[in-house]
């Protein structure tokens, strides 16, 4: 019988796993912020075109990353059972899925210009976005492989190397952007294409670092991860497919919720949209902590489920939810006490519209404090469910919560009921609250009453 751990021990284990993942998530955000800032220095047209291109890339990445996110729970469960052969089979076939998906969607990025024009974007910006994607698009395969290695190493509780590899990639990205966007250090000035080259190289370097570690680290050689890599394993391939595609669509449903809110905020006004962008960026920084804890919970719960330790599974889930809740309360306090200074960090106060943006951003951060707890709860519930390899049910819960309830509520509150931008965020809160309640109910309804071992 497995010795029962205290809640404090569960929390320490979650932090040991989760802190490097949180740091890795924040480093990924630094990549995005760096690209935005440097292209903003280069020119407005370049920045706008790469926003289009990067958004297209991100949508495709979210879809393809479902396989590696699902794999994390699969590998953790197999490790709990002591089945190292299944660890290798699932990880290898996830790499297959990542490569095949990247190849399949490459034509979308190669001919993205006409697609963007058909979606109402300006021809000049669409052409520049296509230039970006024709280079950066080749980085989708290494980006998905990075996510695969991240899931594999996280399940093995080797999250520290994930953090260091991501930070190394962030440093490479900054240096290459400085060289290739502006033509510094004797390099050609490539503008948008330079940013694309930097992205491609960064993703490739990070993938190679993690692959080398996974293959050569002495304690991990026993998994023989790349041995006879070319041989198909159709049962494992089908298993990864079955669990992975709902995760990708779940991520797309949630991402689409916030993209739709940005579109509707643009209907409200320019000042409101600017404040919305800042407030969402601030909320996203806090969300990275919850996401890292959720990933750690996936691993811990997967290990417990694999070895049949339902006491540990339930106790670990309680500890993870409690930690996320405590951090959420701290963020709520910060958002309510310091909204003006936080929004002001993103603005030049000498600009005439800065005061209006700060005023409306203060309202949005108060609403962000409200949905912070629901957002934390839904991502934690998703992490727990993925740990027990439950992926299809959560997909339908998120689609209903966000697209049947959240988006219509946002529209009704903002426009017919006249609450404007504040109404949009109230609608987001409603959608997130419904998702949080239903996802938590699904996890505890299935696993809260399992016979304790």
UniProtKB/TrEMBL annotation:
Primary residence: membrane
Classify the protein's membrane topology as the record does: Multi-pass membrane protein
Q: Origin organism of this chain?
A: Albidovulum litorale
Keywords, ordered alphabetically: Antiport, Cell membrane, Ion transport, Membrane, Transmembrane, Transmembrane helix, Transport
Which InterPro entries is this protein grouped with? MATE_fam (IPR002528), MATE_MdtK (IPR050222), MdtK-like (IPR048279)
Q: Which residues cross the membrane?
A: 51-75, 96-120, 132-149, 161-182, 194-215, 273-297, 317-347, 354-374, 394-415, 422-444
- Where is it localised? Cell inner membrane
Keyword Membrane attached: yes
Q: Tell me what this protein is called.
A: Multidrug-efflux transporter
Q: Could you confirm whether the keyword Transmembrane appears in this record?
A: yes
